[in-house]
Amino acid sequence: MDVLFQNATVLTLCDDRPVLKGGYVGIAGGKIAFVGIAAPQEPAARTIDCRGKFLLPGLVNAHAHTAMCLMRGYADDYTLQDWLYQKIFPVEARLDERAILAGARLGFAEMLRTGTTSASDMYFREPAVAALALECGMRVSLSNAVLAFNEAAYDPETDRAIQETRALIRDFHGAGNGRIRADAAIHAEYTSYPAVWRYVTELALTHGLCLQVHVSETRKEHETCIARRGVTPTRALYDAGVFQAKVLAAHGVWLTDEDMDIFAETGASVAHCPVSNLKLGSGIARTAEMKRRGVNVALGTDGCCSNNTHDLFEEVKLAALLQKGVSGDPTSVNAYEALKMATVGGAKAQGRENEIGRVAEGFDADLILIDADSPLLRPVYDPVSTAVYSATGRDVCLTMVQGRILYENGQFTTIDVEQAMHEVEAYAVPIVLGAQS
Ligand SMILES: [Zn+2]
Predict the structure, then answer these.
(1) How far is the CA of 68 from the centre of ligand 1 (A)?
(2) How far apart are the CA of 60 and the centre of ligand 1, in A?
(3) Cβ contacts of residue 394 below 8 Å, gap of 6+?
(4) From the CA of 122, how far away is ligand 1's center (Å)?
């Protein structure tokens, strides 16, 4: 055995025994080889004593634009229209591959530091980001979303998003023992056409990829689609066959009951992004109703320019609080259900439900430790409640992906964080500010 965690309060996220006190979790060959309340027979190369700590599955960020870390705090308190067209799009037109890699590296460091081990990413230059993720040890599902405003002029053979997706499939899909995956992606209903959706869906079906898409983020988007096409964005995508692929839809703030039924029937997932939706004034997704209708709900941060952090613990807490506040029913989404969205739900959304999201034998060893031996978290009556309502990503003291420790007690093992911050500030920030071209 490579590593043995002992005396841990284990939040397994397995419904038959969600919490294991004084637990032992053994890691071998990148997988969880042992879970129990007595020490295993086999000795371990390294034993980590976890008294006062919680061991839980690494969190899954099901919707991120990781490299937007470059724009943390760059455009706050704007209307969505001004934010996107006057601030974000002009910067994105200036970003080169080096700047995107700088942002992605800092973003991965932040995720690992705050307990996220797997991310679904939608951005540009994704083959280079895949190589970076391989190097950093991070688990990622990467996509470059198709945008096609001019249907007559659109040619998938010359579309950079399609070319990058094909490069991802060819060079990185399944790399790192399955850590790196290529996803197909349609940016959104309002930024392309049914012929494009069918092409991307075919690509996903041919290669067995998940399909990421933004759906019904804002009321305007939702209602404009109904005015233009006579149906909701979900229904329009469904009618074009998009839901034949395994869909992971970000936001879903304005989904109708019928839209939710399409998600439930097709096994599609919603990446609920509460912080981003609040910050851009988009609204509050009806996740309690989604749950009631059998929709898989995961959590995402969205880009760091509409959040402004990759600390998924914020989303977990808000996922529980918002539904209580909106419904007036404090039992509508409880702490355990919110934590499940960030683990089991995220794993399912990524098509990795048999791989990650639980502390169970045979699963990949993507694990985090929360240091609960702290005046900020004591006393502990219910560790799930402490993890959801009191802990933040800053309480994470160890992060492991596939059995490899990537962060421990202030030290990163695969990322030179000083260098990463310097590269962002010296190289990329001037580009963001328009000082270079
Ligand atoms: Zn997004």
Answers:
(1) 10
(2) 15
(3) 114, 311
(4) 7
Contacts of 4 (CB under 8 A, 6+ apart): 24, 25, 26, 27, 34, 39, 40, 44, 46, 47, 48
- Domains contained in the chain, CATH given: 3-57+363-412 (2.30.40.10), 59-349 (3.20.20.140)
Residue 127 pLDDT more than 90?
yes
Q: Are 60 and 350 in contact (CB under 8 A)?
A: yes
- Ligand 1 centre distance from Cα of residue 217 (Å): 9
- Report the candidate in 3, 8, 103, 9 with the shortest Cα–Cα distance to residue 384: 9
| Mean pLDDT value across residues 214-223 | 97
Give me ligand 1 centre to Cα 314, in Å: 17
Average pLDDT score over the chain: 97
Q: Which residues contact 416 (CB under 8 A, 6 or more apart)?
A: none
Task: Say how many Å lie between the CA of residue 353 and the centre of ligand 1.
Answer: 23
Torsion angle of C-alpha atoms 245, 234, 91, 119, degrees rounded to 10: -50
pTM across the whole model? 0.98
Q: Give the Cα separation of 359 and 46 in Å (integer).
A: 19
Distance between CA atoms of 200 and 198, rounded to whole angstroms?
6
Per-residue confidence (pLDDT) for residue 365, from 0 to 100: 98
pLDDT for res 435: 75
User: Quick one: average pLDDT of 42-67?
Assistant: 98
- Predicted confidence at residue 150, as pLDDT, reads 87
